[in-house]
Amino acid sequence: MASIAEWIEGARPRTLPAALAPVAAGLGVTGYTGTALSTGQLVGRALLALLVALALQIGVNYFNDYHDGVRGTDDVRVGPVRLVGQGLAPARQVRLAAVASLGLAAVAGLALIVLSGVWWLVAVGAAAILAAYGYTGGAHPYGYVGLGEVFVFIFFGPVAVCGTTLVTGGAVWPVSVAVSVPIGLLTVAILVANNLRDRHLDAESGKKTLAVRLGDEGTRRFFAAVQISAFVLIAWTAVLTTPWALLGMVGAIPAVKASQEVLEHAYGKGLIPVLQLSSLALLLTGLGLGLGLFL
Predict the structure, then answer these.
(1) What is the pLDDT averaged over residues 195-206?
(2) 262: number of CA atoms within 13 Å, CB side?
(3) Measured between alpha carbons, how far is 150 from 185 in angstroms, rounded to an integer?
(4) Residue 269 half-sphere exposure, CB side, CA atoms within 13 Å?
(5) What contacts 281, CB < 8 A, 6 or more positions away?
(6) Cα 49 from Cα 152, distance rounded (Å)
(7) pLDDT tens, position by position, 83-135
(8) Spelled out in words, what is the top-level CATH class assigned to the domain 6-294?
């Protein structure tokens, strides 16, 4: 029976900046463009948006643990706890935790839709839940064919940032899209680092992630290119909006270190600090952009 600490680690809290950063950045856009909501309404919707994002991320992580565990691709891994793969918790319990997390996201999302009156977001929410399941679930999981980065970019970039501005500011503005792209790219960098670490084991188990398809050197160059592109776009966003948006560049500090480690061929456990640095880069960028645009 897994302990509470192991359940928490199984939720992979180090990946949660992927949920927090787009909401923070989206709220910054709302502050920049303005909103008709009162402070109380804005805070309430922001908290609901954050709950949706966090619950979706945790649900993805538990489903990833469950599906990889029952398929046997987590039998030998470097990195975080694998509840099913390490035999710490029955597979059915991990599956239930995943379903409960996605259910919480659905309830919070529905509440947000009712408050905002944007009913077509039901379809977006349903797509997000299906994407959370389909990453490693179903007959043809897209994470097993190298499409994980595409879906991560879409749902943790444009969907999350623009969705936040829509329910808190009443519209999706050009600046919403501009901000969503670097947030999506930095989220992709986390997944690339994770898949680089697991590349050999994934290849042996038939999991053809983008890292497996690109090879070692190609994946390392792709990781650095994604991060560089993100911060170039942040600088351009500051030119188009306000110099305060350059506060998002604070995330470049851990990002540069992460890219340096990757390009210098950090391997196996040596990539765990890269994952931590990449998560920190995303978090600092999201908070910096949010604060800078809000000012």
Answers:
(1) 89
(2) 33
(3) 10
(4) 0
(5) 186, 189, 227, 251, 252, 253, 254, 255, 258
(6) 17
(7) 998 888 999 999 999 999 999 999 999 999 999 999 999 999 999 999 999 99
(8) mainly alpha
Residue with tokens 């879906």: 151
Collect all residues with Cβ–Cβ distance below 8 Å to 218 and sequence separation of at least 6. none
Rounded Cα–Cα distance for residues 39 and 278 (Å): 32
What is the distance between the alpha carbons of residues 88 and 62, in angstroms, rounded to a whole number?
Answer: 13
Angle at which helices 210-240 and 252-263 cross, to 10°: 150
Residue type, 230: A
DSSP string, 66-97: HHHHHHTTTSS-SSS--TTTTTSS-HHHHHHH
CA-to-CA distance for 126 and 194, rounded, in angstroms? 26
Q: 190 is written with which tokens?
A: 């986390």
Place of tokens 């994934």: 202
Q: What is the pTM of this model?
A: 0.95
Q: List the domain boundaries for the chain.
A: 6-294
Terminal Cα-to-Cα distance of the chain (whole angstroms): 48
